[in-house]
Amino acid sequence: MRDLLDKRLIFVTGKGGVGKTTVTAALARLAASRGRTVLVCEIDTDASMGHIFGAADIGFEPRRVEPRIYAANLTRTECMGAFIRRFVPSRRVADLILKNRVANIFFDSAPSVMEAVILDQLATLSEQKVPAFDLILVDLPASGHALTFLDVPRSMVEMVRVGNLAKHMQGLAEQIADPNRSELLLVALPEELSVNETIELWSAARERLQIRTNRVVINGLRERDVQPGDADIARAAVAAGANAEAMDRVAWGAQLGAWWREQDRVNAERLREAIDGQIVEVPYVFARVDERDLVEHVADALNGASA
Predict the structure, then answer these.
(1) Is the residue at 286 inside a domain?
(2) Is 18 a member of any domain?
(3) Within a 10 A sphere around the Cβ of 211, how many other Cβ atoms?
(4) Structural domain of residue 36, as residue ranges?
(5) I need a labelling partner for 107 at 20 to 30 A (CA). Which of 2, 29, 126, 252 fits?
(6) 131-161, pLDDT tens digit by residue?
C-alpha cells in the first residue's frame, strides 16, 4: 500500500454498500499522517465527508476539514458553471448560457457532457497552486458507472481535438492511464455478489480502458476466532447445570459465527485466485463505534498492509 499513497490521483470504487467512502476517508487520513496534502473529492452526491470529518457544509470549493486534508463535492451543476465561466471570456455571456433552458436540456441529455465537466474540474484542481494538493482521492460512483466515467477523457479527446477542453481532457486521459501517477482502487465485501462484480470490474478496467489496478481492499472480513467446537463447549456447560436456553443461544451463535468466518474466507480466496494483484484485508468491527472511529480502524488496517 505504501506505493499507492505515492500516486497523484487515486480513484476508489466498488459495488454500492461496500464501504468505499470509508476507505477513501481512511486513505486520506493515512496520507496526511505521512505529510501529504490531500484533497478528497465526492462526485455529484450528498456529501458524506463532512459527517466523517466533523465539518459541515462541504461544497464545491475545497474546504480544509483536518490538518492536511481538504474535501469538496463536485456537483454537476457547479462544475458546469465553473466550466462555462472558464472557457467563455465574458461573465455576462457565461451567465446567459447557464440560465438558458434549451442549453441546460442539452447539457443534461448529451452523452458524457456532465461527466466531462466534472473531470475538467478535477483536472483544474490537480493543477491548482494554492493550496497545492499532493494527492487527490476521488470517491467514484458505484462500480456500474465508474468505468463509463473514467472512459470519458479518452472519448472526449477523440471527439474534441482542439482548444482548452481538449488539452485538459488529453492531460487527464494521460494521467489516468499512467500507472506511476494514478490508480483505480477497488473495494469489495467478502460476499459472493460483491466478489463477482469486483472480478468483472478488474478485468474490464484493464482490458477495455487499460487502467492499472494493482490491489483490492476486501472490507469487513469477520475474523473473530470462533470455532465450530465452541458450540460443544456451550452444550457441555448445559450438561453441567448452566441455563439451558441461554447456552443454546450461545451454541447457535458460535455455529453461525464459524460459518460466517468460513464463508468470508472462501470468498476472499476466490477473489485472490481470480486477480493478479494485492488483496488488502480490513477486519469487520464488531464493537459499536461512530464513523470517525471506523475510519481510524480502516486506516490502521491499511497502514498495517503497507508496513
Answers:
(1) yes
(2) yes
(3) 21
(4) 4-224+278-306
(5) 126
(6) 899 999 999 988 778 888 888 877 777 776 6
